[in-house]
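Lab meeting notes turned into a lecture example. A postdoc, R.K., suggested we walk through two folding results consecutively so the class can see how the record format repeats. The first protein's sequence and structure tokens come next.
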Amino acid sequence: MDDALPLLDSTRRALDHRLARAQAEGRAPSLVAGLVRDGTLAWTGMRGSVDGAPPTPDTQYRIGSITKTFVAVLVLRLRDEGLLDLADPVEAHLPGTSVGDRTVLQLLSHTAGIASETPPPWWERTDGDVRPELAGVLGPQPRILVPGRHFHYSNPGFAVLGALVAHLRGRSFAEVLAAEVLEPLGLRRTSLMPAAPHARGWAVHPWADLLLPEPAHDAGWMAPAGQLWSTVEDLSRFAAFLLDGDDRVLSLDSLREMREPVAATDAEAGGYGLGLQCSGGPHALVGHGGSMPGFLAGLDLAVDQGLALVAFANATSGPDLGALIEDLVEVVTTAEPRLPEAWAPLPEADAELLALTGPWYWGAAPFAVRLLAERHLELVTLGRRGRESRFRPEADGAWTGIDGYYRGETLRMVRDPSGVVTHLDLGSFVLTREPYAPTSVIPGGVEPGGWTG
């Protein structure tokens, strides 16, 4: 398909220009980025220098809270293996914490109502040995809000999730991460501690073009909250996995679950899923930002465009990587919009399902059923916006909603004694071929006189 072709030279030039402007205006010692299109690293850009030389796609940068997305993948693996349920309280799998009544889902979505940070000293600039026990990460009073009611970002919450992963696997968090995510995906340059070549973290003076080195410590228990280092090449590969899935690590269905908002954030029309931020911008990006002293990072997916962007800078503050990524997506989608998939007929006709297609009525409201590939059905409204969903077939002859209003609900054909389909039952709602026909099986019955003027 055309989207697999290399980017146009004019598109590359526009991407390079936007990156150069971000590095210059943001006063970053170095800034690097990569663009994935349909699973392939289609463009990389580098500006500035690292140790006197230009950075490369193999130069490590600290990625901060993007680490949380890796943690979420590990937790979803445990869920998919049946070792935990997202509704389980933490205490069921990691006994003895002071937040044991909070659920795994609440920790993943930052709705557990626990503190944003550890007790002093500032964990990002101190060695993890300061907190030799997990209790030191949480402190004496970590429970500050009612759980499940509000989005409240919590770094210690992901430290607890990292500890939970290690406890259930019987290995250190680093070992589990390497064996279950980094090695299967080929992320050979992603690590908890830096490995050369890597950028040094800098603070840039706010009123002068001067630099101050930032420290980089092993955060200990807090490592799952933001310690990973990675490269453009590695994080682009991880981004491609987040777009398409890899059954060796996590299925596409589970990744889609991660990408769905659980809680609204303070950002306009934004939300937070399971270890992933959902932006409310023009391109509906899904990903995560990251910052640690001396570093900024961003990873975002434009799922409907098959695009992913990653960007790193070795500066504590300055460049707005979120705005940069949005603009890079805009450059590509404007210059080289993705072609729609070519239409193709179904491989075969199913007479029984074909008979279900066409208009149906919920009371007097008109709907239509469409037949999709693999015996899937789609319920659409006619002439107005309303409750629409797609349905997947089940072994018992029913269908289950996979999106929209009827997600998780059951759609069934109801037959009379002769085997003729009389109506559809959708979560107790009755869909009939005619609006309130006198012979329809409608709860409460239909007025015998029928429709009148």
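The second example is placed directly after the first for contrast:
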Amino acid sequence: MLKSILFLVSTLLVAKTYADDSTAESLYGTWSSKSNQVFTGPGFYDPVDELLIEPSLPGLSYSFTEDGYFEEATYQVSANPKKPGCPVAAVIYQHGTYNISSNGTLVLTPIKVDGRQLLSDPCNDDGTSVYSRYNQTETFKSFAVGVDPYHGIYKLQLYQFDGSPLQPLYLAYRPPMMLPTETLNPTDNSDDSASETGSSNSKRSLSELVKRGLENKHRTNAVKNNHQGFIFSNVFWYVSMVLLGVGSIAFLAY
């Protein structure tokens, strides 16, 4: 009986080390997938020359502000089982606003004119990648932020519209590394477009912001706040390990 109680308590405490949180405050920062090579910001997309910069490895990155803005950087490579030498690769950039509904659903609404995609299909595009505008609203059924008990760092778990988990993302930068949140490349028929003089000034201002972002890229390494959730998670982890050890001894002695 004692053995069962100790095992149950230790299991519950281990589960508590991943203290889920689903608020805008918890989303704040830049999150990147395990490859740790894909990050949002000026190192991924240059809006002045409208260039997508291909990372060294595939991956995914999202950034969130506390006041409702997001940015996405994606580098996907899909294998072709029938033709191993014909993988399809896509580099995608989006940014815009996000909303968290009362039931925990997270909706990302991009600025339509700013999304970009670079699609490479070497066996069908004659060696020339296709560069185009991209606009895709994304809906996540739920999300959770907590301390990963294995890596000991903050992890963001997004659940897609059907409830299936997306690959986990890990905190890389806080504050987030992002491009300006306003429309970057307004079109002539866009509500955000300005006069010819205004567009020129806007372009010059944008160029300065991007340049500053590139200069600061390596000065904004993630700063993780050691708030109570992190401390409590560590305490739960150590206590659970002790109880698990006691339970094992009791089991062997029994």
